[in-house]
Amino acid sequence: MTLADLGFGAEFERALSALGIADGFAGRVTRIDADRAQLSTESGETTARVPRRVVRTEPGRPVTGDWVACAPGPEPVVQAVLPRRSELVRRAAGRRVQPQVLCTNVDVLFVVMGLDGDFNLRRLERYLTLSAEGRMTPVVLLTKAGLCPDPAARAAEAGSVAPGVRVHAIDVLAGIESGAPARYLGSGVTAAVVGSSGAGKSTVVNFLLGHDRMRVHAVRSHDDRGQHTTTHRELMALPQGGAIIDTPGMRELGLWAEGEALETAFPEVIELSAGCRFRDCRHITEPGCAVRAAVEQGTLDAARIASYIALGKELERRSKDTRRG
Fold first, then answer.
1. Which residue among 27, 56, 81 closes a domain?
2. Which of 47, 61, 208, 315 has the highest CB neighbour number within 10 Å of its CB?
3. Is 141 contained in some domain?
4. DSSP letters along 151-205, please?
5. Considering Cα of 95, then 138, then 153, then 226, what sign does the dihedral take?
6. pLDDT of residue 56
7. How confident is the model at residue 321 (pLDDT cuts 50, 70, 90)?
8. Is residue 3 part of a domain?
9. For the domain that residue 205 is a member of, what is the CATH number?
10. What is the pLDDT of residues 39-88, one digit of tens each?
11. 221 and 158, same structural domain?
């Protein structure tokens, strides 16, 4: 497989040449282990050392999905992270207000939810907001469709909070819409799968790879909660071309985004707000609010606007905490 199959295009080639590294070569980070980066390069798989400070780079230390420039040697050394086309970022877990870059240079983000106890529209809205901020195309995969009495109804529910986003109810083990994910893949395309533990991310990845590369466990029977079978982010080349990144399930999904991303994730709210009396209407108690009028008329779900307001407040708090820090 060539670097072009993995997404190495003209923009990365120009960035590599501009660095002027003698005999420098490009590699795609498939996995990070402490201070070592596993890379896919034109000559095959290799390991490169990541210095404590990667000084010739803007984004920072490399993460899975990055293209890096390396200096040759007995052990190659990462010299720079090439500019990213996209990045999936959340607020890091814990009290410190800082971003955590999960993976980069992703074209398609598969948001995976199991059609069992994992189905959660509010969490889906969070993923769609992060996808918009990261400049990725989201696709919703509702897994375990064979276990759901009415997968079409669930897909319609998911579609109601994902305007313009493709939603598929699938079950790759039962052969239900199993070909849907592959429609978005191909040479040069990178996809990432995100979702809760036990949602079926690794099962989808294994199906696309054509063999059991990632370990899978059954969810716990008493609460439908998954076990953390994927413990790291890893990029894998696909037999049909392109690549896919599997990610661990996330217990916390704090937003790290700007208001424009929230607007992209809630387009119908933004469209309705154009009819509000006040330009800065917050859709809470202001008179002449077209959004609240739509809720009262039954054309907009009250839970949808409540989520929009709550996520907006979360982003405001994050912005204030960042400025104080």
1. 81
2. 208
3. yes
4. HHHHHHHHHHTSTT-EEEE-BTTTTBSTTTGGGG--TT-EEEEEE-TTSSHHHHH
5. negative
6. 59
7. confident
8. no
9. 3.40.50.300
10. 999 999 999 999 988 755 666 789 999 999 999 888 899 999 999 999 99
11. yes
If one counts every other C-beta atom within 10 angstroms of the C-beta of residue 254, the result is 17
Contact present, 197 and 189 (Cβ < 8 Å): no
| Residue 231 pLDDT grade (very low, low, confident, very high; cuts 50, 70, 90) | low
- Among 81, 103, 135, which residue terminates a domain? 81
Residue 23's nearest CA partner among 65, 82, 67, 72 is 72
Please state, in angstroms and as integers, the Cα–Cα distance from residue 275 to each residue in 252, 305, 313, following that order: 35, 15, 22
Note the residue count of the chain.
325
**pLDDT tens-digit map of 278-307:** 999 999 999 999 999 999 999 999 999 999
Query: Are both 198 and 317 inside the same structural domain?
Result: no
The answer on pLDDT for 267 being more than 60 is yes
Q: Are 185 and 108 in contact (CB under 8 A)?
A: yes
Domain hosting 119: range is 87-246
What is the distance in angstroms between the CA of the first residue and the CA of the last residue of the chain? 45
Domain count, the chain: 3
